[in-house]
Amino acid sequence: MINNISEDGIIPSSLPKGDFMKVKCQSCSKMIDRNTAYKVTMGKVNKYYCNENEYADIQSAKKIKDNTYEKIFECFNRKITNSVLFKEINELEQVYGYIKITDYIEENMDYLSSVLINKSFSSEYAQIRYFTAILKNSLADYSVETKKHEKPVILDIPEVKYKAVKKKRSLDEIEQEVGEML
Ligand SMILES: [Zn+2]
Question: Which of 34, 95, 116, 133 could join 21 via S-S bond, C-beta 3.0 to 4.6 A?
């Protein structure tokens, strides 16, 4: 048995090459035969997966997550790097999943962005907490329409478009709800 294989699946050159070469699957961490593994070359590094499906699943999960954050940044009209956002969204994701979160944000983009712009916050932290409180408050009762499932996830967003504020009607109402939560 040869166990001295590095984490990234690179075999020391002194070792003979043969069909015993094992690499670690980047998806499920299983040790797999390098000759039959699905290989993805990223720059100078090869990544191995049990099969193409495992790789595709990882990629599509990553794209769904990226898409959610694109929408969130669109609401804020800027990129957020504050870790509290990621922590809060992770918690919501465990319950609702990224697709539902994204659908809700897309449907309520005008409202969400108007709240974030019109209301004054003492800090970015407070603004993020306010935003995630709205999500928490709304997602439980939000159901994704059937047609939404048929809509492909839009992955390439060429530019962040900022939409004009339209919906102010329910603002006071929801602000009141969120205010009570905080
Ligand atoms: Zn695997």
Answer: 34
User: Phi, psi at residue 100, to the nearest 5°?
Assistant: -65, -40
Residue 16 to residue 144: CA distance in whole angstroms: 55
CA of 7 to the centre of ligand 1 (A): 14
What are the strands, taking DSSP E only, across the chain? 22-24, 31-33, 38-42, 45-49
pLDDT in tens, 122-176: 999 999 999 999 999 999 989 866 445 454 454 554 554 445 555 555 566 666 6
**Distance, C-alpha 149 to centroid of its chain:** 18
Residue found by looking up tokens 């003979």 in the block: 16
Q: What is the pTM of this model?
A: 0.63
Residue 29 carries which side chain, given as an amino acid letter?
Answer: S
Distance from Cα 31 to the centre of ligand 1, integer Å:
8
